[in-house]
UniProtKB/TrEMBL annotation:
Name of the protein described by the UniProt record: CoA transferase subunit A
Annotated SMART domains: CoA_trans
Keywords: Transferase
GO molecular function: CoA-transferase activity
PANTHER family hit by this protein: ACETATE COA-TRANSFERASE SUBUNIT ALPHA (PTHR13707:SF60), KETOACID-COENZYME A TRANSFERASE (PTHR13707)
NCBIfam families linked: pcaI_scoA_fam
PROSITE patterns: COA_TRANSF_1
Family: Belongs to the 3-oxoacid CoA-transferase subunit A family.
Pfam families, sorted: CoA_trans
Native source species: Exilibacterium tricleocarpae
SUPFAM superfamilies assigned to the protein according to its UniProt record, in alphabetical order: NagB/RpiA/CoA transferase-like
Gene3D superfamilies: Glutaconate Coenzyme A-transferase
InterPro entries per record: 3-oxoacid_CoA-transf_A (IPR012792), CoA_trans_fam_I (IPR004165), CoA_transf_BS (IPR004163), NagB/RpiA_transferase-like (IPR037171)
Length: 233
């Protein structure tokens, strides 16, 4: 692999260097746009004591939820956690630390971490438990709380297409948290459905430039539907 060619041949190579007690930032929203192969590799590695930053923790038996089965996650920083019974059990038993974060604030924490901004002020959460113990300043007569940015040892991201240089595009709502997560990891691993030839992606199409991507792998995806709803017959 040259300095410009980001493609790796296996998930073991993609996650090389991941160790206990690291922080992982994961893209995805529900089960949409989640890095399924990277999550499966972390499960296989048995890495423990992890802090995972993601909108949610998957569901029982799929997505990030599989990392709860062997108690690999020590702390979860997320926005929505209502679809996982095992998550609830571990939280209530004191086996899992959870830091609930408003969804927009979580996105901005990732974006700020990737942009080199250590902290930012937001009105969201002021006057609620989210704002307890945080610095407050007033701007234009409105109080704001100081939120710290988030950076990870690894970022795991799901894209649609990429070239070998790591320029990535996402498909529709599967974009979600992935672009922010991709910027915020010391090592960013992107798995995609298709790797195309250099020059095939138009610059205006690219959502994540290759400068942010360290390792790229082509995977296969189940793309499970979280809540299947159909109209009455």
């Amino acid at each position: 692999m040259s300095g410009f060619d980001k493609v790796v041949g296996s998930y073991a190579e993609a996650l090389e260097g991941l160790a206990d007690n690291m922080t992982i930032i994961a893209g995805g929203f529900g089960l949409c746009g989640i890095p399924e192969g990277c999550i499966a590799q972390i499960k296989a590695m048995g890495t423990k004591g992890l802090t995972v930053v993601s909108n949610n923790c998957g569901v029982d038996g799929f997505g990030l939820g599989i990392l709860l089965e062997d108690k690999q996650i020590k702390k979860m920083i997320s926005s929505y956690v209502g679809e996982n019974a095992l998550f609830e059990q571990q939280l209530l038993a004191g086996e899992l630390e959870v830091e609930l974060t408003p969804q927009g604030t979580l996105a901005e924490k990732m974006r700020a971490g990737g942009a080199g901004i250590p902290a930012f002020y937001t009105a969201t959460g002021y006057g609620t438990p989210v704002g307890e113990g945080k610095e407050v300043r007033e701007f234009d007569g409105r109080p704001y709380i100081l939120e710290q940015a988030i950076k990870g040892d690894f970022a795991i991201v799901k894209g649609w297409k990429a070239d070998r240089y790591g320029n990535v595009i996402y498909r529709h709502t599967a974009q979600n948290f992935n672009p922010m997560a991709a910027t915020a990891g010391k090592i960013t691993v992107v798995e995609v459905e298709e790797i195309v030839a250099p020059g095939e992606l138009q610059p205006s199409q690219v959502h994540t430039p290759g400068i942010y991507v360290d390792r790229l792998i082509q995977g296969s995806f189940e793309k499970r539907i979280e809540q299947r709803t159909v109209r009455p017959a």
